[in-house]
Design a protein that fits this description.
By secondary structure, this protein is mainly α.
Length: about 210
């Protein structure tokens, strides 16, 4: 597809339909950008996504993400997997791509952002979650070992009033181990339940 001078940057071959970008001179970036613009199928998707996640050259990164966005539909699972390991800037760009996809699979992929090591990515993913698949992921994260993540999930469940998770919140509050968690987190659990069902929260608090 494109060939750089010795020691430069190479972007695949038309025969193999692969994309491999190595560090090199910036002069050939416009050529790679043009190749990605005119490529007529998703044959480069996996390679383009992997390179986009680590690309430091802004213009090339923009070109890679533009290609990924154009062919993102039907690749939601790959985008979700990328969220958990991407750096913060790349993960936020992946979230934006998933946000623009209407599919149920995109909603599921968005939930993978909750596993990101970057707090800003987790918060952004929480704001975008939708659908029953996402709620199932939220319920699982309510038992995560990371207390900060649990508290972030509780805040979103309360703000969005996701009543489907009410039973899970009640079970945790009534669990014997609830008394062992820090007072600040106890307050978050009770506040979440109150947002979902004030009457049930009062009854539960009285019974503690």
């Amino acid at each position: 597809v494109a060939e750089a001078p010795s020691g430069g940057l190479t972007a695949g071959t038309a025969a193999t339909g692969t994309l491999k970008v190595t560090r090199g001179v910036s002069q050939i970036v416009p050529g790679i950008e043009r190749v990605l613009q005119i490529w007529g199928d998703d044959g480069l998707f996996t390679d383009a996504l992997e390179q986009a996640l680590v690309e430091a050259e802004p213009q090339l990164g923009d070109a890679l993400f533009a290609y990924v966005k154009r062919w993102a539909e039907s690749h939601e699972a790959a985008l979700g997997q990328a969220l958990a390991r991407a750096n913060m800037a790349a993960a936020l760009r992946v979230l934006a791509i998933l946000e623009g996809l209407p599919s149920k699979e995109a909603g599921t992929a968005l939930a993978a952002g909750l596993k990101s090591p970057h707090a800003d990515v987790r918060r952004a993913a929480l704001d975008l979650l939708r659908g029953e698949e996402a709620y199932a992921e939220l319920q699982q994260l309510l038992t995560d070992k990371d207390a900060d993540l649990r508290r972030e999930v509780l805040a979103v469940v309360a703000r969005l009033k996701i009543r489907a998770l009410g039973p899970a919140v009640v079970r945790r509050i009534q669990d014997e181990g609830f008394q062992e968690i820090p007072p600040t987190e106890k307050k978050d659990w009770l506040a979440c339940l109150f947002a979902l069902n004030a009457t049930r929260a009062e009854e539960t608090a009285i019974g503690m």
